[in-house]
Amino acid sequence: MAKARTSYVCQNCGAITQRWQGKCESCGEWNTIVEEGAALGIGAASARRGVIGRPFPLEDLSGDSKPVERIVTGIGELDRVAGGGFVPGSATLIGGEPGIGKSTLLIQACAALARKGGRVVYVSGEESTEQVRLRAARLGLSQAPVQLAAQTLIEDIVATMGSGDAPQFVIVDSIQTMWTDSIESSPGTVSQVRSSAQALIRFAKNSGAALILVGHVTKDGQIAGPRVVEHMVDAVMSFEGEGAHAFRILRASKNRFGATDEIGVFEMTGAGLAEVANPSALFLAGRDGAAPGAAVFAGVEGARPLLVEIQALVAPSTLGTPRRAVVGWDSSRLAMVLAVLEAHAGLKLGQHDVYLNVAGGLRIAEPAADLAAAAALVSSLVGVALPHDGVYFGEIALSGAVRAVGHAGLRMKEAAKLGFTRASLSPLGRDNDEGARLAVFPVSSVASLVAEIAASGVARKVTK
Known about the structure:
alpha/beta, 24% strand, globular
């Protein structure tokens, strides 16, 4: 009898080795290598039998294609991140920390769609149907005709969904709990997750159902499991938020049918997740415009303008190595801005502790926040409050120059809508937009920014 072949697969990156070892050589993680059966999964049996494939006809790019009607859930922020609704036959992967509200959001979307008459299936691998019903009752959704199941075997799930009318919307919570008989390993391993996702995606493509897979996340906030699953699906979304804040952010990092880096903002309430139509007003609520060290950044997330307050605190340090703490922004970006301020603006920050925070818990990734962060740092250092009706945006170069960023008109329109009257940006960054209605204060370099803030402080002292 032939000996069954085995291989050792890293559960973090999917690397395959021929022997067990404590540390994966590909990703560097410890104790992530698990023994699994080799040459298993979908298509493996045909490969072993030597089955020859059949040719199929190829098509041209110029072929006729019908416009696709998207599946609109009715939850505006969710549909916005999906690109205007979910495309039939698409697969979406949603990740987020435990307790962030993924299941709450999805059960609300299921109920909204089911009430419109479509067949909606919610498959839970972590909770029983009674637990899902309790959540639905708490949210006031118990009367929605959503079809529930507590099952983890992929073959049974696909067979059940394939019986009767094709479902319009399918939720699988979560993909790490699913398993298939074709793989000789426990649920959650790389092979099980990959094969289970492949079977579900094939069903979605053939039936036209919009499939949503819920994924676990690691301690770093990344979606757990092999990266190949993120390549297999059409869209990847992450649900973010902090326990100290009531709002949640749904962010798209990949979307084959819409814009990436799009965000949707929700607020966690006793009745579930509520949409936030004006997130800028939420992030600026309670702002103290007279306090030094606070600057309003006019940013853009996807196609949505977003205003948020950047707070800085620069204090003399008693430590040999001053502290550099940042929340909601890239720490490497902060180090670069500090170095530019010292080299090109003459500020002495080497003996100061620096703390930078994006108010409200939002995380900013675009380099346009450089100018707002620099303004907040200078304001805190010299003890001068910035104009309460001004916004800042621009990228700082290593030479100290302030570079222009895109969507300047969109940023200024959002600022004008919220009552701001002035904008500080690169002199080359203003769009030809007559609807901005803001007084533009050009900032060509960090040296001119420091001079402007220092001059405003002197003028206020003279006035007093």
